[in-house]
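Team,

Forwarding the record for the chain on the shared tracking sheet. I've put the sequence and predicted structure together so nobody has to dig through attachments.
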Amino acid sequence: MRRRRRRRRAGGLLLLLPLLIMGLGISIGAAVTAWTELEGIDRSGRITGPVLFAWSEKLSEQLHLSLAAAEAQAEEDMPEAEWEEPKTQPEREPDTALSIAGGSVDLEAAPKLRIVLDPGHGGPGLKEEQELGAIYRDTYEKYLTLEIAQAMREELSEYGNVEIFLTRDTDRAMTLKERAAYAESVGGDLLVSLHLNASLEHNFYGSEVFVSAFEHFHARGAGVGECILKELTDYGFVSKGVKTRLGSNGADYYGIIRECKSLGIPALIVEHGYMDEDGDWARMNTKEALRTLGQRDAAGLAAYFGLEKGRILPELPRIEETIPPAVVRPDTTPPEEVWYKKERQGDGRFLITLHGVERESRVMYYDYSVDGGETYGKLQLWGSEDTVQFPMNLTGEEQLVFRVYNNYELRTEAR
């Protein structure tokens, strides 16, 4: 009796196997059909927010019908003794993460921004700075920028009206010209190059954004940059502002900005913070911290363009951008009128009044030495006025030197 039942069970399984294979083939065919249609919408080859939710229901329905047909056929042909009632599966809740604003919207006609994220550096080199980027704390910048870019892509994919592309999603080398060419090939509206900073004296800190100095390229880059900097300062970084830099020939200094401009694409460089400064490093030294940076970048970009998380808009808000009438030149001179005075107080300490003026940009930091400039303390943030005051314990034997910096890292000494 036991042997006969085993034979019947084996026979049932052999009969069911080709039906399951047939069902799987139908399902794969349905998926391929949906994916083919999706490819026609998203040139990135990635399922971004608007595309995903437009096609998810159609794909789900095709798969459901194919599997149901295979199960019905299997039930009909399976020996009665071996049939078991299938377990009831809970109904899948409909996707509600992305809605269509204002009722029905033609998804193909809805405006879409094509944003290209450029994780700085990348490649197998062991000494090449272009490939490795900054190297501190046994960490390569190229790995951190990729983490930030992937988090930014994931966060932006939750917004409507945007498609996201990465110049690289692995550790590979790309020239600046290749990165700009890729942005053009996908019809990029904006390229955001993601970086982390370092300084020769290992004393600077803060976030800064570099943009083109010319026309609408400056207006677009500066607008997005200001919104991203707001997010980063809310996270705890100090803002060093949106800046330009020119080469000796008068063109944009940074290659990725220059190459993108030559192809008609606005670009900006986001320097999130300094890997070699403890305070900044604490905001980027874990995967979760890097993920937060990417999310902050995404929120700033979305705020500038008026994107809404979970919604496809039939029209994007109109952005008022002021085109500069001339080249937006960087500050190339250090702070002026730098002096200090000290006044003895009743408690025996001295009150230091430090003065500095910056007419082209802004005064950013100050520091001081008590040994004639051999060593200096940590950079302190300047205030909003032309002077700062602070107490010091002095014996009168010190050799005081004060340094005042602008946000372009240019400085003036006072002895």
